[in-house]
Automatic annotation (TrEMBL):
<protein>
    <recommendedName>
        <fullName>Cadherin domain-containing protein</fullName>
    </recommendedName>
</protein>
<feature type="domain" description="Cadherin">
    <location>
        <begin position="241"/>
        <end position="345"/>
    </location>
</feature>
<keyword id="KW-0732">Signal</keyword>
<dbReference type="InterPro" id="IPR002126">
    <property type="entry name" value="Cadherin-like_dom"/>
</dbReference>
<keyword id="KW-0130">Cell adhesion</keyword>
<dbReference type="InterPro" id="IPR032455">
    <property type="entry name" value="Cadherin_C"/>
</dbReference>
<feature type="domain" description="Cadherin">
    <location>
        <begin position="566"/>
        <end position="674"/>
    </location>
</feature>
<keyword id="KW-1133">Transmembrane helix</keyword>
<feature type="domain" description="Cadherin">
    <location>
        <begin position="25"/>
        <end position="131"/>
    </location>
</feature>
<dbReference type="GO" id="GO:0007156">
    <property type="term" value="P:homophilic cell adhesion via plasma membrane adhesion molecules"/>
</dbReference>
<dbReference type="Pfam" id="PF16492">
    <property type="entry name" value="Cadherin_C_2"/>
</dbReference>
<dbReference type="GO" id="GO:0005509">
    <property type="term" value="F:calcium ion binding"/>
</dbReference>
<keyword id="KW-0812">Transmembrane</keyword>
<feature type="domain" description="Cadherin">
    <location>
        <begin position="132"/>
        <end position="240"/>
    </location>
</feature>
<feature type="domain" description="Cadherin">
    <location>
        <begin position="450"/>
        <end position="559"/>
    </location>
</feature>
<dbReference type="InterPro" id="IPR050174">
    <property type="entry name" value="Protocadherin/Cadherin-CA"/>
</dbReference>
<dbReference type="Pfam" id="PF08266">
    <property type="entry name" value="Cadherin_2"/>
</dbReference>
Amino acid sequence: IPPKKKPEPSISKHLETTKGLDVCSEQTTRYSILEETESGSFVAHLSKDLGLRSGELTARSARVMSDDYKQRLLLDPETGDLLLREKLDREELCASMEPCVLYFQVSLEKPVQYFQGELLIQDINDHSPEFLNREMLLKIPENSQPGSRFSLKLAQDLDVGSNGLQQYTVNSNSHFHVVTRNNSEGKKYPELVQDRALDREEQAEMSLTLTALDGGSPPRSGTAMVRILILDINDNAPEFVNTPYEVQVLESSPPDSPVLTVLAKDADAGNFGRVSYGLLQASDEILQTFSINEVTGEIRLKKGLDFEKIKSYYVEIEATDGGGLSGKGAVVIEVLDVNDNAPELSISSLSNSVPENAPETIISIFRVGDRDSGENGKVVCSIPENLPFILKSTFKNFYTLVTEIPLDRESRDEYNITITVTDLGTPRLTAQHTITVQVSDVNDNAPAFTQTSYTLFVQENNSPALHIGTISATDSDSGSNAHITYSLLPTHDPQLALSSLISINADNGQLFALRALDYEALQTFEFRVGATDQGSPALSSQALVRVLVLDANDNAPFVLYPLQNASAPYTELLPRAAEPGYLITKVVAVDRDSGQNAWLSFQLLKATEPGLFTVWAHNGEVRTSRLLSERDAPKHRLLLLVKDNGDPPRSASVTLHVLVVDGLSQPYLPLPEVVRESSQEEDALTLYLVIALASVSSLFLLSVLMFVGVRLCRRARASSLSGCSVPEGHFPGHLLDVSGEGTLSQNYQYEVCLREGSGTGEFNFLKPMIPNLLESKESPHYRDSFLFS
């Protein structure tokens, strides 16, 4: 095949495609090329022969690998052509082996496929036959008969086939001619045939020119000189004791190691019975590997053996006596393999990065092998068991490293996978290769708050833009997948204007109060915050934030009773006959603050008669501290202070006028069972109050109203077992109901009635109608309702 012309080889292909990774070609694709073809020469249009489309070789990462682990072929991914990477020498690659075939494989990915190929390297006639010795000495007894044959040393021709050695010729003479014969290895050697009897006395020595010719076009040749010595008669040739000899030698045997000793015997005596040994028709390889002692017949190694190159030797030996007669023998030397080659690993495809959570992913495709044979050449491939990877055998000695389960970068982001290849020889040899695989991140983890809910405390009346707390979330991912942005989530409470109250720093989660908070308006509120990463798609989580506003003492006490905004000062009546501890009135006050800021205490600041009155600090009751005397003034002015328990405390003042009157009776306690039970009784009482008020304005109507009032009072007493007699004096009946929040916790009803026959100087002050309603004096809150008449 011309080197520059694209060959059109006959290609037989049969492809089977199966799912998975084990996809291979069962048929071999064969090509041929002449040796010594220049590198880069075209071999074949591989993509066309494999039935692949244009560009598919590049898309599927096509690679060409040779069995001898050397890259002798080159694949052009653009054109799909198979090219020579280097000039090939058939004699260097295959020596005398015929045919000379270079085996290679083509691997494809996505899916994984393999194609087996063979490249036949054809010989050209680039070597001439050569004799190892340019001169050969042949001793022939003179009694040798015509037709006797004498073997000569063969010539070596590195070419094979028709270009190899084909025949031998000898120059024209009257005594001998040459015939070409084949030895046991199929090599051609010359044999000198005697044509007529010899006469030593006529001619004791002669010289012939031996020519070796090959079958090339044009043929090449090589010559050697054959010197023939005619000897005296020797009628017994040496004979080997055993033939052939068989011996086994370890390939690890060092040079100069003995192989065996051969022995030949000759029945002649004297010089004709003395035997010398030599190698017969030995090739250059045998001559370089073995030597034989001419005297002892011991065969030794000249260099080390290599089982992987040559597994056995067939060595022909010759024993020659002193008379020139010789006997032939043979030695079969079998080279025993030893485990002297470690396994080899060749990476075909490698991916160093794998996304997490991915299904079964190919990490690497590689090939393993061992140059040894038998058990020494069998290999076992393994990886550590504690890794989430497995090895799959695909084609011949090809393996695929794949993930066994989806990987999790948050658990482990890098794997160092050591592939160990071990042969089964003794001792076992091992080769290792480490692959580092990085696990790339996927946004599969949502941000996680450090707490499910946060409680923040803010003092009311805070300054705007006050930092009130920080929320924090973490993300197990990396890079942008772990970058968190914080935000306020919409609230479901329409009354809460969250955007005007709170803001959040989107980068660090710091929360700020946008305006001053008022505890009295808003004690607590809650909202949700979100943390979102920047992955694709983005993941988020939520947390609840509860803000508690802490009370500050920013409200002074407010007096509900007695009212301080009236145009005229409020006056209370005090009977002159009142006992010490007599309840004059009760100051009712409230505070909008809470806690200890709303705990109120009462204090008498100033009085006309300081020793006459006392104020209970916890409930605001104003009482007498001693009996009144005639010298006491009839009118007193009291200044009271209501103070809370805040820091600093706030206060309010109360001014109270007390009028001392004569003739009022001692207070009495009405029955506790008396209650207002029905709306009809309340309406009657209201009617009574209206009538009593009208009686004050008109003296004429007083008598009529008093008559009606007495009748109504008697009727009420009959039905409720509680009442009072309305006097026919100058004091009209008067009812007043005051309710509010102060220092009492229950409603009170007081009734003041003028007794019959008591005149104008005596009043009846009734105690509360419901017992045990007063709370302890230390209670901070009270509710009071007074009914006066």
